Amino acid sequence: MSARPIGVFDSGIGGLSILHALQQALPGEAFVYFSDAGHAPYGERPDAFIAQRCLHITEALIRQQGIKALVVACNTATTVAIHWLRQRHPDLPIIGVEPALKPALERSASAQVAVLATDRTLSSAKYQALAARMAQAYPHARIVAVPCSGLAGAIESGDVALVDTLCARYTAQACQTAPGVDTLVLGCTHYPLALEALRRHAPTGLAFIDSAPAVARQTRLRLGAMGLLAPQPKGWPPQPARPGLQLLGSGDVHALQAQAKRHLAHLAHVGRIGEGAQAKGQAA
Question: pTM, whole model, 2 decimals?
Answer without folding.
Answer: 0.89
